[in-house]
UniProtKB/TrEMBL annotation:
Region described as Disordered: 24-57
Protein's name in the database: CsbD-like
Pfam families linked to this entry: CsbD
Organism: Noviherbaspirillum suwonense
All residue ranges annotated as the CsbD-like domain in the record: 4-55
Length: 57
């Protein structure tokens, strides 16, 4: 597991938390920021996954 995978997973989880808080306080802005963070995290994790595949080749 590389740093991109770890950071991407952490960012995804943080985004889910932020989205949940946004829903709890009825803040569309926080929900949107949370969703954006999730997308960034998933992209970073995918990059890390690709690096692992290439490293294994």
């Amino acid at each position: 597991m590389n740093t991109d995978q770890v950071k991407g997973t952490a960012k995804d989880i943080a985004g889910k938390v932020q989205e949940g808080v946004g829903k709890a306080i009825d803040s569309k802005e926080q929900q949107a920021k949370g969703l954006e963070k999730q997308v960034e995290g998933k992209g970073q994790k995918t990059l890390g996954d690709a690096k692992e595949i290439v490293k294994g080749e």
